Inverse folding.
């Protein structure tokens, strides 16, 4: 039982990180109806931004500390938000009226461009780097033998806060209402006086900031980072978004948690050889059984 | 108020409007009638900025607005109730109406407009917390018109408000259109397949055929025109 709970906690931590990435996929899909395959690379850029920021922030704030760690995360989120907005502006906006397939292939191109540019020795270099300790680390071991490490608590706390913040933005603010309107019908949204380009930029910024936070949280827990680190988590988060119902925000969060937990349990109890196959196995099953996803709805038109 | 000069619009290589010219006087209801595919909806979409013209001018209060993005055109006081209503079915009635006032920063004014729309369509007040997708077709049309009024337009573009509605509801909606025009002096450009009804409530009419204006006259005169009678008024 202890072992199971332990695996569950580990799985929830991984799942929270996937959930944060999946939200970006699903938000962009909801608004532009395409999969931004470069999203996993924003996650990587978030981790690298943290890597380079940590020594700078350490000049002003104690490090490792909660405040210092959060400052690194906050700045990294802001940088990645700008990067996400720029990618949309430069790569996707000129293709606004092109077929979706064109945009999709462009997204793959952008992803490869980022990955291989970053592997250049003058950029980050291909060799893995060791991520600095930015949050204070403790191990809490209960009498039952259950161990919770402080980084996992940070993952849960940060994820929860970001999810609540996102929920507030989407449901209670004007720009959130514009996002929902745009995702439902872009033409009608434009007729309301909504500047759709601004809302699209905002969506990319928001999704990229969440991916950056996920990148930092990931690097804190698995402190070896490299320019290709975003590929697998990115694909798994994409599966999570599809599992939850692409375009559906709670669905993306739920999908992330399900994938994270399933993957950890399979690795723990069956074989860790198959851990990366789990997400894609789930993808195949969900596409066969319920292609609209767990929380996705089929759209019905009323006459 | 609105003066369209020699407007050419196409979908890719396929032309939809070949040099349409028309004008809408302030305070009037002008209707654009014609068969399916004549270019009525294209004309409205071009005015509101959803489509970009190939050439031609759209003068609104003397300034050319052709080719501006929709949000700038809304800001200038033109509101478009699109064909098929296009309400946000996933949002509540209230949220739909608030979106109509998206560009209005003054909350006081938004509240006043909301009251005004609710007094025009009391049914919407009762259902304000309801998700718009659960409304009946007629209520959705009321919502679409109410939403367009929230931006306090000077010119209202109405595309097929009778589409898919029971005759009794059509009558109600058209009475409201007349009321909005009479009581607020709102200028209306109405596109309608139900030519009888459209000519009955409008002051001036244009007949559009395959992308060209073929007739124009006072609505009363148009409804007596033998050509219009045989083609659009069912003999």
């Amino acid at each position: 039982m202890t072992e199971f709970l332990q695996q569950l906690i580990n799985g929830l931590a991984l799942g929270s990180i996937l959930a944060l990435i999946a939200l970006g996929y699903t938000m962009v899909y909801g608004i532009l109806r395409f999969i931004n395959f470069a999203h996993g690379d924003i996650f990587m850029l978030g981790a690298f931004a943290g890597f380079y920021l940590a020594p700078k922030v350490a000049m002003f704030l104690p490090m490792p500390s909660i405040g210092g760690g959060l400052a690194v995360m906050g700045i990294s989120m802001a940088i990645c938000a700008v990067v996400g907005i720029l990618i949309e502006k430069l790569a996707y906006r000129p293709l606004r009226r092109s077929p979706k397939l064109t945009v999709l292939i462009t997204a793959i191109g952008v992803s490869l461009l980022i990955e291989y540019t970053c592997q250049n020795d003058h950029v980050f270099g291909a060799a893995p780097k060791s991520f600095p300790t930015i949050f204070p680390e403790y191990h809490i071991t209960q009498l039952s033998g259950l161990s919770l490490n402080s980084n996992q608590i940070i993952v849960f706390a940060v994820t929860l806060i970001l999810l609540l913040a996102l929920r507030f933005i989407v449901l209670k603010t004007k720009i959130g209402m514009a996002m929902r309107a745009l995702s439902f019908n872009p033409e009608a949204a434009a007729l309301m006086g909504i500047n759709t380009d601004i809302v699209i930029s905002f969506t990319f910024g928001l999704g990229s900031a969440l991916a950056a936070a996920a990148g930092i949280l990931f690097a804190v827990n698995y402190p070896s980072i490299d320019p290709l680190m975003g590929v697998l988590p990115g694909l798994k988060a994409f599966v999570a978004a599809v599992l939850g119902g692409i375009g559906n925000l709670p669905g993306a969060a739920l999908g992330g948690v399900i994938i994270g937990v399933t993957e950890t349990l399979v690795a723990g109890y069956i074989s860790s050889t198959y851990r990366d196959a789990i997400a894609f196995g789930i993808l195949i099953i969900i596409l066969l059984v319920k292609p609209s996803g767990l929380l996705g709805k089929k759209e019905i038109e009323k006459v | 108020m609105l003066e369209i000069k020699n407007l050419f619009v196409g979908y890719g290589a396929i032309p939809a409007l070949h040099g349409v010219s028309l004008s809408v006087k302030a305070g009037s209801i002008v209707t654009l009638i014609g068969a399916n595919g004549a270019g009525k909806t294209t004309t409205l979409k071009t005015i509101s900025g959803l489509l970009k013209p190939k050439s031609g001018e759209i003068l609104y209060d003397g300034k050319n607005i052709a080719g501006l993005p929709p949000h700038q055109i809304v800001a200038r006081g033109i509101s478009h109730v699109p064909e098929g209503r296009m309400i946000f079915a996933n949002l509540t009635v209230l949220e739909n109406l608030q979106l109509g006032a998206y560009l209005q920063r003054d909350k006081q004014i938004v509240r006043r407009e909301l009251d005004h729309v609710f007094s025009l369509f009391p049914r919407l007040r009762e259902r304000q917390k309801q998700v718009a997708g659960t409304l009946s077709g007629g209520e959705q049309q009321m919502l679409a018109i109410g939403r367009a009024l929230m931006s306090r337009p000077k010119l209202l573009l109405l595309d097929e408000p009778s589409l898919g509605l029971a005759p009794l509801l059509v009558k109600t909606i058209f009475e409201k259109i007349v009321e909005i025009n009479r009581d607020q002096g709102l200028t209306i450009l109405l596109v309608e397949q139900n030519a009888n009804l459209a000519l009955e409530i409008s002051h001036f009419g244009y007949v559009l055929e395959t992308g060209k204006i073929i007739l124009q006259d006072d609505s009363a005169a148009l409804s007596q025109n033998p050509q219009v009678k045989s083609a659009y008024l069912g003999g």
